[in-house]
Amino acid sequence: MGTNGSTMLQPLRQGLPPLDPASVSNAASCALPARYEAVREARRFTRRTLEGWDTGDRFDDVCLVVSELVTNALRHALPADTVRHQELNGPVRLHLMRWTERLVCAVRDPSHDSPVARETDDFAAESGRGLFLVESFSDGWGWHPLAGTLDGKVVWALFRLKP
Questions:
Q1: What is this structure's pTM?
Q2: Which CDD domains match (predicted)?
Q3: Inside any domain, residue 137
Q4: Do the bridges between strand 153-160 and strand 102-109 make them parallel or antiparallel, or are there none, so unpaired?
């Protein structure tokens, strides 16, 4: 917790979720425009996708975490000159991947900045809690920079599913 109500910034660990991409049983992705309505679109896409996958009791957790990751990408990872009301060619992309007993949601954005979790003593704060919620509702999360011709980073959250 922060001391004396001050905000403390914590750098996050880098890495990939410990899963073999070749053994994925289901995968889906969608491009999201640079506007805040994209959060609603991401939730709809996630709900439609997960309805066809057996995610057990994790359905609501995954939808909440997707909302937070997409919100963070739109709020913190887009260049300041991005026009948020125009339909752009998806500067943010949502990926959902399911293995037998795990599900990963990953959000790609064009920023090179690492995500930063803020801790604060002010529980009435209206923002700054997104990564806290991601950590609370997922079984693990992290981020990694993109390599090769792709620019930016991916922030991911892992969910364990009951067999």
A1: 0.78
A2: HATPase_RsbW-like
A3: yes
A4: antiparallel
Quick: pLDDT tens for 43-78: 999 999 999 998 889 999 999 999 999 999 988 766
Number of domains in the chain: 1
Query: What is the 3-state secondary structure of 23-91?
Result: HCCEEEEEEECCCCHHHHHHHHHHHHHHHCCCCHHHHHHHHHHHHHHHHHHHHHCCCCCCCCCCCCCCC
The answer to whether residue 103 is domain-embedded is yes
Domain that holds residue 135: 10-17+40-160
Residues of the chain with pLDDT under 50: 1-14, 83-88, 124-126
Q: Are 5 and 41 in contact (CB under 8 A)?
A: no
**How many Cβ atoms are within 10 Å of 69's Cβ, its own excluded?**
30
Average pLDDT of the chain is 78
The distance from CA 115 to its chain's CA centroid, rounded to whole angstroms, is: 10
Dist CA 80 CA 122 (whole Å) = 27
